[in-house]
Amino acid sequence: DPAAQTYALTLKQTCPPTPGQDHKEPFHIPFALGLLDGEGKELPLRLDKEEKPHPDSTRVLSLCQPSETYRFVGLPARPLLSGLRGFSAPVQVERTCSDEDLAFLMAHDSDEFNRWEAGQRLCGRILQNLVEKHQHKEELVLPEMFISAFAGILGDPSLDKRLAVEALTLPAEEYLAQQAKVIDPGAIHETRLFMARTLAARLRDSFLSVLQKNTDSGPYAKDPQAISRRKLKNKCLRYLMLLADEQVRELCQSQFRAADNMTDQVAALVPLANADVPEREPALAEYYQQWQQETLVVDKWFAIQATSRLPGTLASVKALMEHPAFDAKNPNKVRSLIGAFCQANPYHFHQISGEGYQFLTDQLLRIDSFNPHIAARLFTPLSQWRNYTPDRSAKMKEQIERILAKPDLSKNVSEIASKSLK
Asked: Whole-angstrom Cα distance, residue 111 to residue 312?
């Protein structure tokens, strides 16, 4: 109410019934909140009938009833709610909030958790919209408000670097697939990549500046501050490597060669493995040559190549199965190559041709003869076949039926495959 300078906030709580408990009594939910004005400044938190505002910019309301209304007074401007600050209670909040409000909270909220959460919600909404546009072959455009809010996080030196890394991370393709009614892995991948490349192009200089400011020139350090700087620097490098930029490519190659720790070396190798550049193959060969005696590092080497977004990744996986370091009877090697491709590379695994499904079935049936447990684990990507677009769904079901048709199929695989069709 602008005239009365008051703001009424109603909180309601519900908890669905569970077996043996049809009716749930209200919980005592601590709801930490703040109110922001149009410039992002904290507004006074004085409830009706209180003589003075709360001394802090955040206060905790105790929601103990199914529904309670709190009336704040003495507000000179329309407030924007920053609710559940610090994740004050393990609850899901259903709230009507515009994209503009989310962008504002992403850019200005003093609560770091809420700033991250607002960014994730807004990014998810935008990506869902872009997926629909991609499916209808419409032009993809990234909203300016999101770019500005993203730039605000990237350029805020006061923000905790660990949080900044999380806030600059786009929702994973797997998460976006979980939110979709019908999963279209190709559209999800292309739109997420479009968003990342657009951000990298528009904010190139900012990414480069943050990378340089967080590059340590001294010896490797393991303290929390150094770890946070490395994570932030490498996050910026990953964005920049999405661009066809020779300076960035040289920077990435230099980091790979000069790295005195595995974190920096892998952080440079991953974007090189995802780029169609001359430096890619030499870097992969050099990494293997350096670490070929370290089993776990070789597993990482397999997984990096299996999860590449470059065309021809499935062919590369098949070629790597002939590599001397690969052993189909070693569960870790199977997980790092075959498992990584089928479970962590949805874009290529779910190619519309169905080659990924056929590949998985071929390997599953082969491995089932000597390790049914691992074969059953490999089946997981096919188990959700009903959730995908009709063309993909039909091809996945066809491979499940092919698996079940094997005469000497193990009980492990037979049981999980049969249940998936019910």
From this structure: 44
CA–CA dist 31, 288 (Å, integer): 51
Nearest 5 degrees, angle CA 405-CA 406-CA 412?
Answer: 105
Given a contact cutoff of 8 angstroms between Cβ atoms, the answer to whether 346 and 192 are in contact is no
Task: Summarize the chain as % helix, strand, coil (round to 5).
Answer: 55, 10, 35
- Rounded CA gap, 236 and 174, in Å? 22
Q: What is the residue-wise DSSP string for 93-139?
A: ------HHHHHHHHHH-S-HHHHHHHHHHHHHHHHHHHHHHHHTTPP
Question: What are 43-70's pLDDT values in tens digits?
Answer: 999 999 999 999 999 999 999 999 999 9
What are the residue ranges in the chain where pLDDT is below 50? none
Contact between 242 and 176 (Cβ < 8 Å): no
Exposed/middle/buried for residue 122 (C-beta within 10 Å: 0-12, 13-18, 19+) = buried
pLDDT at site 100: 94
Based on the number of CB atoms within 10 Å of its own CB, is 401 exposed (0-12), middle (13-18) or buried (19 or more)?
exposed
Tokens of 258: 């000069």
Could you give the CA distance from residue 328 to residue 203 in angstroms, rounded to a whole number? 44
Instruction: Check: CB of residue 72 under 8 Å from CB of residue 46.
Output: yes
Q: Determine if residue 143 is left, alpha or beta; phi over 0 gives left, psi from -120 to 50 gives alpha, anything else beta.
A: beta
pLDDT of residue 217: 85
Q: DSSP letters along 250-304, please? A: HHHHHHHHH-SSHHHHHHHHHHHHTS-STTHHHHHHHHHHHHTT-HHHHHHHHHH
For 12, 170, 215, the CA distances from 160, given in Å and listed in that order, are 32, 18, 16
What whole-number distance in Å separates Cα of residue 189 and Cα of residue 346? 8
Q: What values do phi and psi take at 411, rounded to 5?
A: -65, -35
